[in-house]
Amino acid sequence: MQLLKTIKEVRDAVAAARRQGKIIGLVPTMGALHAGHGSLIQKARADCSFVVVSIFVNPTQFGPTEDFNKYPRTLDTDTRLCESLGVDCIFAPLAEEMYPQRNLTWVDVEQMTKGLCGASRPGHFQGVATVCAKLFHIVQPDRVYFGQKDAQQAAVICRMVTDLNFPMEIIVCPTVRERDGLAMSSRNRYLSSEQRKQAVCLYQALCGCRKMVEQGIISTSQLIAQINQVITTAGVQVEYISIVDAQTLQPMTSLTADALVALACRVGTTRLIDNMLIFLNPPRFQI
Fold first, then answer.
1. Pairing label, strands 24-29, 143-147
2. 107 Cβ partners below 8 Å, 6+ apart?
Protein backbone atom coordinates (compact mmCIF):
# COMPACT_ATOMS: atom_id res chain seq x y z
CA MET A 1 0.00 0.00 0.00
CA GLN A 2 1.23 3.49 -0.87
CA LEU A 3 0.84 6.52 1.42
CA LEU A 4 0.98 9.55 -0.85
CA LYS A 5 0.99 13.22 0.08
CA THR A 6 1.07 15.11 -3.24
CA ILE A 7 -1.32 15.47 -6.15
CA LYS A 8 1.38 14.42 -8.60
CA GLU A 9 2.10 11.23 -6.67
CA VAL A 10 -1.51 10.10 -6.60
CA ARG A 11 -2.06 11.01 -10.25
CA ASP A 12 0.99 8.98 -11.21
CA ALA A 13 -0.19 5.99 -9.15
CA VAL A 14 -3.67 6.08 -10.68
CA ALA A 15 -2.26 6.50 -14.20
CA ALA A 16 -0.12 3.40 -13.68
CA ALA A 17 -3.17 1.44 -12.51
CA ARG A 18 -5.17 2.60 -15.52
CA ARG A 19 -2.46 1.45 -17.88
CA GLN A 20 -3.00 -2.01 -16.41
CA GLY A 21 -6.73 -1.75 -17.15
CA LYS A 22 -7.75 -1.41 -13.51
CA ILE A 23 -11.08 0.03 -12.29
CA ILE A 24 -10.44 2.92 -9.88
CA GLY A 25 -12.50 3.27 -6.70
CA LEU A 26 -12.30 6.27 -4.36
CA VAL A 27 -13.45 6.51 -0.75
CA PRO A 28 -13.23 10.16 0.36
CA THR A 29 -12.81 10.59 4.14
CA MET A 30 -11.59 13.02 6.76
CA GLY A 31 -9.84 10.25 8.63
CA ALA A 32 -10.56 9.03 12.18
CA LEU A 33 -11.73 5.90 10.39
CA HIS A 34 -14.21 3.50 11.98
CA ALA A 35 -16.22 0.46 10.88
CA GLY A 36 -18.54 2.66 8.83
CA HIS A 37 -15.63 3.80 6.70
CA GLY A 38 -14.42 0.21 6.67
CA SER A 39 -17.68 -0.91 5.06
CA LEU A 40 -17.22 1.66 2.27
CA ILE A 41 -13.66 0.46 1.69
CA GLN A 42 -14.80 -3.16 1.60
CA LYS A 43 -17.48 -2.30 -0.96
CA ALA A 44 -14.93 -0.44 -3.07
CA ARG A 45 -12.52 -3.37 -2.78
CA ALA A 46 -15.23 -5.77 -3.96
CA ASP A 47 -16.18 -3.57 -6.93
CA CYS A 48 -12.83 -2.16 -8.04
CA SER A 49 -9.32 -3.39 -8.82
CA PHE A 50 -7.52 -0.28 -7.48
CA VAL A 51 -8.82 1.46 -4.34
CA VAL A 52 -7.82 4.95 -3.21
CA VAL A 53 -8.80 6.30 0.22
CA SER A 54 -8.39 10.03 0.67
CA ILE A 55 -7.76 11.28 4.21
CA PHE A 56 -8.06 15.04 4.39
CA VAL A 57 -9.61 17.22 7.10
CA ASN A 58 -10.96 19.86 4.75
CA PRO A 59 -10.76 23.33 6.33
CA THR A 60 -13.21 24.94 3.90
CA GLN A 61 -16.19 22.95 5.19
CA PHE A 62 -15.78 24.08 8.81
CA GLY A 63 -17.42 27.25 10.08
CA PRO A 64 -15.62 29.73 12.35
CA THR A 65 -17.21 28.23 15.50
CA GLU A 66 -16.84 24.57 14.48
CA ASP A 67 -14.40 21.90 15.56
CA PHE A 68 -11.71 22.00 12.83
CA ASN A 69 -8.79 22.04 15.29
CA LYS A 70 -10.55 19.53 17.55
CA TYR A 71 -11.35 17.10 14.75
CA PRO A 72 -9.38 13.87 15.42
CA ARG A 73 -6.29 13.17 13.33
CA THR A 74 -5.34 9.48 13.56
CA LEU A 75 -3.32 8.86 10.39
CA ASP A 76 -1.22 6.02 11.83
CA THR A 77 -4.29 4.08 12.98
CA ASP A 78 -6.13 4.90 9.76
CA THR A 79 -3.20 3.63 7.71
CA ARG A 80 -3.17 0.30 9.51
CA LEU A 81 -6.92 -0.14 8.96
CA CYS A 82 -6.63 0.70 5.26
CA GLU A 83 -3.78 -1.72 4.82
CA SER A 84 -5.71 -4.50 6.54
CA LEU A 85 -8.64 -3.93 4.16
CA GLY A 86 -6.53 -4.10 1.02
CA VAL A 87 -6.42 -0.43 0.07
CA ASP A 88 -3.91 0.23 -2.71
CA CYS A 89 -3.26 3.91 -2.06
CA ILE A 90 -3.94 6.50 0.65
CA PHE A 91 -3.97 10.12 -0.49
CA ALA A 92 -3.29 12.21 2.63
CA PRO A 93 -2.39 15.73 1.49
CA LEU A 94 -1.69 18.74 3.68
CA ALA A 95 -4.00 21.74 3.37
CA GLU A 96 -1.24 23.59 1.51
CA GLU A 97 -1.27 20.89 -1.18
CA MET A 98 -5.02 21.13 -1.74
CA TYR A 99 -5.24 24.91 -1.33
CA PRO A 100 -1.86 26.39 -2.33
CA GLN A 101 -3.42 29.84 -2.61
CA ARG A 102 -6.63 31.52 -1.50
CA ASN A 103 -9.49 29.80 -3.28
CA LEU A 104 -11.47 31.99 -5.68
CA THR A 105 -13.46 29.20 -7.33
CA TRP A 106 -16.23 27.31 -5.53
CA VAL A 107 -18.89 24.72 -6.35
CA ASP A 108 -22.31 25.70 -5.00
CA VAL A 109 -25.22 23.26 -5.38
CA GLU A 110 -28.24 25.52 -4.99
CA GLN A 111 -31.50 24.75 -3.14
CA MET A 112 -30.37 21.35 -1.84
CA THR A 113 -27.87 22.96 0.56
CA LYS A 114 -30.16 25.54 2.17
CA GLY A 115 -32.10 23.28 4.54
CA LEU A 116 -31.24 20.43 6.91
CA CYS A 117 -27.61 20.81 8.04
CA GLY A 118 -27.07 23.65 5.59
CA ALA A 119 -29.41 25.93 7.54
CA SER A 120 -27.11 26.04 10.57
CA ARG A 121 -23.81 25.53 8.71
CA PRO A 122 -23.62 28.24 6.04
CA GLY A 123 -20.85 27.54 3.57
CA HIS A 124 -20.41 23.95 4.73
CA PHE A 125 -21.70 22.26 1.59
CA GLN A 126 -19.90 24.71 -0.65
CA GLY A 127 -16.70 23.49 1.00
CA VAL A 128 -17.78 19.85 0.69
CA ALA A 129 -18.74 20.11 -2.97
CA THR A 130 -15.58 22.03 -3.84
CA VAL A 131 -13.18 19.61 -2.14
CA CYS A 132 -14.99 16.62 -3.66
CA ALA A 133 -14.74 18.21 -7.11
CA LYS A 134 -11.02 18.69 -6.53
CA LEU A 135 -10.57 15.08 -5.35
CA PHE A 136 -12.55 13.78 -8.33
CA HIS A 137 -10.34 15.73 -10.75
CA ILE A 138 -7.17 14.60 -8.99
CA VAL A 139 -8.00 10.88 -8.70
CA GLN A 140 -10.39 10.56 -11.68
CA PRO A 141 -12.11 7.50 -10.20
CA ASP A 142 -14.62 5.27 -11.94
CA ARG A 143 -16.63 4.83 -8.74
CA VAL A 144 -16.87 6.88 -5.55
CA TYR A 145 -18.30 5.63 -2.26
CA PHE A 146 -20.25 7.60 0.35
CA GLY A 147 -22.28 6.59 3.41
CA GLN A 148 -26.02 7.12 3.77
CA LYS A 149 -25.50 8.54 7.27
CA ASP A 150 -24.38 11.77 5.61
CA ALA A 151 -27.52 11.78 3.48
CA GLN A 152 -27.51 15.45 2.51
CA GLN A 153 -23.86 15.29 1.55
CA ALA A 154 -24.48 12.23 -0.61
CA ALA A 155 -27.47 13.83 -2.34
CA VAL A 156 -25.55 17.05 -2.98
CA ILE A 157 -22.58 15.20 -4.48
CA CYS A 158 -24.85 13.06 -6.65
CA ARG A 159 -26.49 16.22 -8.01
CA MET A 160 -23.11 17.92 -8.59
CA VAL A 161 -21.84 14.90 -10.53
CA THR A 162 -25.01 14.83 -12.65
CA ASP A 163 -25.14 18.57 -13.31
CA LEU A 164 -21.44 18.89 -14.14
CA ASN A 165 -21.15 15.63 -16.11
CA PHE A 166 -18.43 14.03 -14.01
CA PRO A 167 -17.62 10.67 -15.68
CA MET A 168 -18.04 8.49 -12.59
CA GLU A 169 -20.60 6.57 -10.59
CA ILE A 170 -21.54 7.61 -7.06
CA ILE A 171 -22.41 4.66 -4.82
CA VAL A 172 -24.20 5.39 -1.54
CA CYS A 173 -23.86 2.60 1.02
CA PRO A 174 -26.14 1.91 4.02
CA THR A 175 -25.41 3.43 7.41
CA VAL A 176 -23.35 1.21 9.69
CA ARG A 177 -24.59 1.13 13.28
CA GLU A 178 -23.47 0.03 16.70
CA ARG A 179 -25.27 -2.97 18.18
CA ASP A 180 -27.79 -0.69 19.89
CA GLY A 181 -28.50 1.24 16.68
CA LEU A 182 -26.38 4.36 17.15
CA ALA A 183 -24.96 5.40 13.78
CA MET A 184 -21.17 5.11 13.71
CA SER A 185 -19.47 8.50 13.64
CA SER A 186 -16.06 9.93 14.35
CA ARG A 187 -17.79 12.28 16.78
CA ASN A 188 -19.14 9.45 18.97
CA ARG A 189 -15.76 9.43 20.73
CA TYR A 190 -16.64 12.80 22.27
CA LEU A 191 -19.58 11.31 24.20
CA SER A 192 -19.37 10.46 27.88
CA SER A 193 -20.76 7.08 28.95
CA GLU A 194 -24.04 8.72 30.02
CA GLN A 195 -24.28 10.74 26.82
CA ARG A 196 -23.59 7.60 24.82
CA LYS A 197 -26.69 6.02 26.38
CA GLN A 198 -28.77 9.11 25.61
CA ALA A 199 -27.62 9.19 21.98
CA VAL A 200 -29.45 5.95 21.18
CA CYS A 201 -32.68 7.95 21.24
CA LEU A 202 -31.95 9.17 17.68
CA TYR A 203 -32.21 5.65 16.32
CA GLN A 204 -35.17 4.85 18.57
CA ALA A 205 -37.01 7.92 17.27
CA LEU A 206 -36.44 6.86 13.67
CA CYS A 207 -37.70 3.35 14.45
CA GLY A 208 -40.81 4.90 16.00
CA CYS A 209 -41.34 6.93 12.84
CA ARG A 210 -41.08 3.77 10.77
CA LYS A 211 -43.80 2.11 12.85
CA MET A 212 -46.12 5.10 12.38
CA VAL A 213 -45.65 4.99 8.60
CA GLU A 214 -46.34 1.25 8.61
CA GLN A 215 -49.61 2.09 10.42
CA GLY A 216 -50.60 4.42 7.58
CA ILE A 217 -49.66 7.82 9.03
CA ILE A 218 -48.36 10.04 6.22
CA SER A 219 -48.64 13.52 7.78
CA THR A 220 -45.10 14.78 8.21
CA SER A 221 -46.12 17.12 11.04
CA GLN A 222 -47.41 14.13 13.04
CA LEU A 223 -44.28 12.12 12.34
CA ILE A 224 -41.99 15.00 13.27
CA ALA A 225 -43.89 15.63 16.50
CA GLN A 226 -43.46 12.00 17.57
CA ILE A 227 -39.74 11.99 16.73
CA ASN A 228 -39.30 15.21 18.69
CA GLN A 229 -41.07 13.77 21.72
CA VAL A 230 -38.86 10.68 21.83
CA ILE A 231 -35.66 12.72 21.57
CA THR A 232 -36.53 15.49 24.00
CA THR A 233 -37.84 12.98 26.55
CA ALA A 234 -34.36 11.46 26.52
CA GLY A 235 -32.89 14.85 27.44
CA VAL A 236 -31.30 15.49 24.04
CA GLN A 237 -31.45 18.89 22.33
CA VAL A 238 -33.00 18.91 18.86
CA GLU A 239 -31.39 21.12 16.22
CA TYR A 240 -33.77 20.08 13.45
CA ILE A 241 -36.09 17.28 12.39
CA SER A 242 -37.10 17.39 8.72
CA ILE A 243 -38.91 15.16 6.26
CA VAL A 244 -37.94 16.00 2.70
CA ASP A 245 -38.15 14.58 -0.79
CA ALA A 246 -35.34 12.03 -1.07
CA GLN A 247 -34.16 13.38 -4.43
CA THR A 248 -34.60 17.15 -4.18
CA LEU A 249 -34.36 17.56 -0.36
CA GLN A 250 -37.36 19.89 -0.47
CA PRO A 251 -39.79 19.78 2.52
CA MET A 252 -42.87 17.58 2.32
CA THR A 253 -46.22 17.98 4.11
CA SER A 254 -47.20 14.34 3.51
CA LEU A 255 -45.51 11.19 2.27
CA THR A 256 -46.42 11.30 -1.41
CA ALA A 257 -42.97 10.34 -2.76
CA ASP A 258 -39.81 8.64 -1.52
CA ALA A 259 -38.72 10.61 1.52
CA LEU A 260 -35.74 11.25 3.75
CA VAL A 261 -36.35 11.68 7.47
CA ALA A 262 -33.31 13.58 8.70
CA LEU A 263 -32.38 14.96 12.10
CA ALA A 264 -29.55 16.66 13.91
CA CYS A 265 -29.22 16.83 17.69
CA ARG A 266 -26.77 17.88 20.36
CA VAL A 267 -25.90 15.40 23.04
CA GLY A 268 -24.04 17.61 25.44
CA THR A 269 -21.83 19.65 23.14
CA THR A 270 -21.54 16.92 20.50
CA ARG A 271 -23.56 17.32 17.31
CA LEU A 272 -24.91 14.05 15.89
CA ILE A 273 -26.93 13.39 12.76
CA ASP A 274 -29.00 10.43 11.59
CA ASN A 275 -31.65 9.67 9.01
CA MET A 276 -34.05 7.16 7.55
CA LEU A 277 -35.09 6.64 3.93
CA ILE A 278 -38.74 5.81 3.22
CA PHE A 279 -39.42 4.20 -0.15
CA LEU A 280 -43.11 4.13 -1.01
CA ASN A 281 -45.32 1.69 -2.98
CA PRO A 282 -45.18 -0.41 -0.87
CA PRO A 283 -43.44 1.29 2.06
CA ARG A 284 -39.93 0.01 2.83
CA PHE A 285 -37.20 1.60 4.85
CA GLN A 286 -33.47 2.04 5.23
CA ILE A 287 -32.17 3.26 8.57
1. parallel
2. 126, 129, 130, 132, 133, 160, 164
> Please, what is the Cα angle at 212 between 210 and 217, to 5 degrees?
120
The candidate with the shortest Cα–Cα distance to 278, out of 244, 250, 248, is 244
Mean pLDDT of the chain: 97
Residues β-bridged to residue 273: 264
Which sequence positions are flagged as catalytic? 37
In the sheet that holds 259-267, the strands lie side by side as 237-245, 259-267, 270-279, 284-286
Task: Say if residue 19 is exposed, middle or buried (CB neighbours under 10 Å; 0-12, 13-18, 19+).
Answer: exposed
- Domains annotated on the chain, with CATH: 2-173 (3.40.50.620), 186-286 (3.30.1300.10)
| pTM for this model (two decimals) | 0.96
- Geometric angle at alpha carbon 56, from 51 and 60, rounded to 5°: 135
CA distance 73 to 250: 35
Could you give the percent of the chain with pLDDT greater than 70? 100
Does pLDDT of 67 surpass 80? no
